[in-house]
Write a structure and sequence with these properties.
alpha/beta, 25% helix, 8 helices, Metallo-beta-lactamase, Chain A, seven-stranded mixed β-sheet
């Protein structure tokens, strides 16, 4: 599998796009979250119109704000001949996804003119098969958030979305080849909704993941020696994400 980071930051980041990832297995592609700036980065590495499956961890705008432009792109790409086939688009996310997508249609009426079928699938603690992928989800400790464990090519990658410390992310990530984990804040600013550096390291250690990719940095944590702190707790491979970083799994 090939992972491209489309957005490694938050709305407060000045040099990072908001959350987004492109996961590829052969010719199959999954888009995981699509916050502000992630669509622009996606267009630098792939043809957005070729993507037919989107996974959303939750509905906060720093993870979803480019969804409407993505849908508009797909519509216009078909209208003006960028693509010839208008394949079905599947959007997967937590409970409330159908209502969320309907609200986008109401706010942006032109999205209703899309020449392809949009299907939504709402998940909680679930298991799902997609062509080329096995997906397991668990609810996180953050407003209506689900994390994803995606398996393909005998490899596994876990995306936490936003979460505070919880046992479910530890169990979901158990023995994963790569854990893509939020790391929002320094240890001096603990939160009930997000992870600090040491908490992220502890999750990776407990889950015994092979490698750890940290993302979703608020400005307060970016001046911290993140990798040094993590390596004092977790002995596996650790990297801090940057926009357009590519990792082969």
């Amino acid at each position: 599998m090939k992972l491209t980071v489309l957005g490694s930051g938050t709305v407060l980041s000045k040099e990072r796009a908001c959350s987004g990832f492109l996961l590829e297995s052969g010719k199959k592609k999954l888009l995981i979250d699509i916050g502000e700036g992630a669509l622009t980065n996606l267009k630098r590495v792939a043809e957005p119109a070729d993507i037919n499956t989107i996974l959303l961890t939750h509905f906060h705008s720093d993870h979803t704000s480019a969804l409407a432009p993505f849908l508009l792109y797909k519509r216009l790409a078909f209208k003006y001949g960028v693509i010839k086939d208008a394949n079905q688009l599947t959007i997967i996310g937590p409970k409330g996804l159908a209502a969320f997508c309907e609200s986008l249609d109401n706010v942006f009426p032109t999205l209703k003119e899309v020449p392809f079928k949009v299907v939504t699938k709402e998940l909680g603690n679930s298991f799902l098969m997609l062509p080329g992928f096995r997906i397991k989800t668990r609810t996180m400790k953050h407003e209506n958030t689900i994390a994803y464990r995606i398996e393909a090519e005998e490899k596994s990658i876990v995306f936490s979305g936003d979460t505070a410390y919880c046992e479910d992310i530890v169990s979901l990530a158990n023995e994963a080849d790569l854990l893509v984990l939020e790391c929002s804040l320094p240890d001096s600013l603990p939160s009930s909704n997000h992870l600090t550096v040491s908490q992220a390291a502890s999750i990776a250690k407990q889950a015994n993941v092979k490698s750890l990719l940290l993302n979703h940095f608020y400005p307060q944590v970016e001046s911290e020696p993140i990798e040094k702190i993590v390596k004092n707790i977790y002995s596996g491979t650790v990297k801090t994400a940057n926009d357009l970083m590519v990792i082969e799994i």
